[in-house]
Amino acid sequence: MALTSASTQAEALAQYNDNLAWDGNTTKAQNALEAVRWLLVNRAASQSIAGINLNYSDLQNEKKRLEDFVIATKTGGQRASFVRARAL
Questions:
Q1: DSSP E strands, 1-88
Q2: Residue 63 belongs to some domain of the structure
Q3: Residue 18 covered by a domain
Q4: For residue 46, is it within any domain?
Q5: In this predicted structure, which of 23-27, 29-33, 42-46, 81-85 has the lowest mean pLDDT?
Q6: Mean pLDDT across 22-41
Q7: How far apart are the C-alpha atoms of 9 and 43, rounded to whole Å?
Q8: Rg of the Cα trace of the chain?
Q9: Which residues form the domain of 23?
Q10: Domain count, the chain
Q11: Which residues lie across from 48 on neighbouring strands?
């Protein structure tokens, strides 16, 4: 799901919740990261819905973990790539 400027907080929370088991799955990690970024950018100064409080400092930590994982999977975990093999 791609969040946009027209997305709601409920949609962003649903996307985040749908991708909680992101560890080891690049697609889920990217979706969770998108949701976390949306929530951080569009957050209110404080939020309480039906007795549930959102703690945005926890989201900052989660964002860092997600970014590190997504970057590592895109770069192959800092593995060296083979460029060319030549017989000796």
A1: 48-49, 52-53
A2: yes
A3: yes
A4: yes
A5: 81-85
A6: 93
A7: 9
A8: 17
A9: 9-74
A10: 1
A11: 53
